Predict the structure of DNA ligase.
Amino acid sequence: MTSDTSLTERAENLRREIEYHNYRYYSLDDPEVSDEAYDRLMRELQDLEAEHPELVTPESPTQRVGASPDTLFREAPHETPMLSLENAFDEDELRDFDRRVRERLGQEDALEYACEPKLDGLAVSLLYRGGVLYRAATRGDGYTGEDITANVRTIETVPLRLMGSDYPDAFEVRGEVYMPLDGFERLNRALAEAGEKTFVNPRNAAAGSLRNKDPHVAAARPLEMCCYSVAVPDDTGLPAKHFEQLQKLRDWGLRINPEVRLVTGIDACIDYYRELLAKRENLRYEIDGIVYKVNDLDLQKRLGFVSRAPRWAIASKFPAHEVMTRVRDVEFQVGRTGAITPVARLDPVFVGGATVSNTTLHNMDEIERLGLRIGDWVMVRRAGDVIPQVVKVLTDKRPADTREISLPSECPECGSAIDQPEGEVVARCSGGLFCPAQRKEAIRHYASRRALDIEGLGEQWVNVLVDEGMIETVADIYHLREEDLVRLDRMGSKSAANLVNAIAESREPDLERLIYALGIREVGEATARALARHFRSLESLMEADEDSLQEVADIGPVVAAHIRGFFAEPHNREIIRRLKDAGVTYRPPPEPETASSPFAGKTVVLTGTLSEYSRDEARDALESRGAKVAGSVSSRTDYVIAGEGGGSKLNKARDLGVPVLSEAEFLEQLAAG
C-alpha cells in the first residue's frame, strides 16, 4: 500500500515538474517535452488529486478553473498606483521627451532606455504573497481596481506559484492581458456561427473575457499575459535597473515580451521604433506602439511624476492599419448554426500585409450602424491575421449609383424562411433540420449525449458520413446499414455493428430528449423538459401557437417565436415525418404526482451541493411533484434549497426573507409528498 507521505511527495513532484514545463513553454518559448508527455504528467496529477482530494492545493496546476468567482469585481486597492503614460506622436516629440529628461537630470550623455512593445490589451496587476498568486486586479482608476483573480487564474501564462525563491515576500507585477490574433479570429468565427455578438478587436475580446462572471468563459478564451514592471514599496533586494528586473521576472516564471530591448540614446530608440514597425505585421498579437522607460531606477526616482504620469517613461504610437477601397457587392452566407452573415465583396486592396477582397459585415445592425450601401467607398482595417473589417463609410465620396443593402427573405442555401425576431441582432435560416449549411451541426447535435445519445456517432463520423453522401438529414441516420458502414476507412465490422445497434436503441427516447435533439433555437434541456411536461406529445407541441407556448414556465415571446417558426417551416416538418416513418417514436413524461406534494405550484431555487441528489436529480424530483425550478432568487421564490457551499443565492434568499430548506428538510418534504 502506498503511504500518505509518498503520495504527497509524488503530487508535489508532479506539480514542480508541470510548473517547470509551463515555465519552459510559456515564459521561455522553449519546451523540453512533447505535448503528449506534458499531458501524461497532467493526467497523472489530476487522477491522483481526484483519488485523494486532501492533496489538492489552491496553486496546483489542476486548479486554474475552480476558484470561487464570489470575489469577482470587488474593489481591489493597489499597493502602489498604476499610472498612465504620456504619448509621443512623432520623432520630434520623442526627442523632446529625451531632452527634457536629460535636462532635469543635468546629464548630457546618452541615457539607457528599456524599449517595450505596447501590447493592445488590458492592464492587470498581480499580487504575489510567498510566491503564490494571491490576487489579480484591473487598473481601475490607478489606485483601486476590480478583483478578477478567478478569471486571471485561468490564464496559462500566469504562474499560480513562482519559480525559484529569491522573490520578495509580497509584491505586485504589472502586465498586459491580451488575445493573440489567431485566437481572436477563431473566437469571433465561433461567436458569429453561434449567433452571438462578436468582438470589434482583440483588446475588447480580452477585456470582455476578463470581465465575464463565469471563470469557465475566461478559461475557454485564448488569453495570454506579458509582464512589464514590478511594483513594491521597498526595492530592497531587487535589481537596480528596469531591464534586469524584467529578466528576474522571467526567471520567476512570468512571461515578458521577447521583443523587449535595452538601447542607449534617443537615436537607438527611434531605430527600434522603425524596426518594430516593419515587424509589426508579422507579430502574432496586436501592438499599437512602443513604451520607452529610463532604465536606471535611481534616475526614475529623481525624475518623479507629473500629475498621474511618470516623467521617466513615454509611449510612442504606431499608425493605424487602414486603407480605402470600394464595396462592389454584398452577399449573404449561412453558418453551421444557421446564422446569416453579410459579406462585402471589395475592390482588392493591400492592407496589413495582405491583399483583401472580402470582409464580414457581421449582421444587418452593423450595416445600419455604418450606414453602408453597395458601391460606397470605405476604410478597411486589418491587423496581422485578423479578418479585415470595414471601420468607416466615406460618405463624402459616395457615388450617385449606390444601392441599399437588404436582408433576403429566404435562405440562400435551402430556400427556407429567414427568421429575425424583433430586437435580435442575428438573422437565421429556419430550416435547421434541412439546410445543407447546417447539416453537420444538426446531425452532430441530434446524436449528442444529452440529446439522442447515439454512441459512436461523434463529430468525426458525422463529417465522414455527410462528406461521403451517406446521410443528409437526421432521418437518414436510421437507414444506415452495417454493410455500407464497413466500407468506410477505419470503420471495422465491430464498430459498424455497435453504431447500428446504438442507432436502433435511439428510436424511442424520452419526449424531452427528442425535443432537445431537434435543435430548436434557444430550446435547451430545461426548456425541452418544460415543453414535454406541458404538451405531453410532439404533435401537440408542433401545433401550439405562440400564446399557448408562453403558458409554459420561463418561455417568453422570443423563445415562443423561435419554436413556432421552427415548426412552421415545411422542411422541418418533412424531416420529422421522415423520422416517424423510420420508426422513431418517444416516451411521454410521467404524470406529475402533485396531489399531496408541498412543492406543487411552488417556485424553488437550488444552491450548493446536495449529498443525496445531483442537481439534475433534485430538479427532476421537484418538477415531478409540480414545482417550478428557477435559476435565480427573487421575491417570487417560495423556497431555496441549500446544500453544502451555498453562495450568493443563499445570501439573497436571507436578504429577501425567502424560506431556506436544508437538505434534510428537503428530503423530509419529498418523502411527505
